[in-house]
Amino acid sequence: MRGFVYILLFLGITSNVFSQKTTTNLKEETQIQTFLKVTEKIRCICLPSLPIQSCSFNMCAASSYLKSFIENRIKEGMAEGEIISKMENGFGTSILNDPIVIMFQENGNQGMVDSIVYGFGPKILAKPDDTWINATLLGLGVLGLFGIYRYGTKKSRVKSNSSQVNSQTPSTSTTEAIKEKIRKFEES
Asked: What are 69-83's pLDDT values in tens digits?
């Protein structure tokens, strides 16, 4: 039982540690802190149960580009509250010159351009609930450990059964057994 508690504690700590890590090109500590606060309060575009901070390029390219867009706003001097408000309500048409917005336009992703210009709405700010993710991972981990346990006990039962069968049969040398099989094959 104690081991189970340690596993739960470990999963809880590691999920908090890993869920708040993201990469940024920002160098100043105040800018990095602003970036972390903003990306913690905005949802991932592809996986809405995660904050954008936890989205990687492999999971969601759109969110990765939005993180670069947020970096550009921070470099311009926007504060955390202003960026979050404009993500919800829109940055306006003056943002159409941003390289990320231009890239979205060139790739034909007008939906993202419109969302940046006019706002994503209140759902972009909802606090993601990662409880079900952690519970699912814990359940899969427990199921996996149970499967490993069952596989291990089955293997040991098979080995003990085969050793009992081998001890009950008289032992013959393998060379003699092979010669006998060859002789029977030649006769047929």
From this structure: 999 999 999 999 999
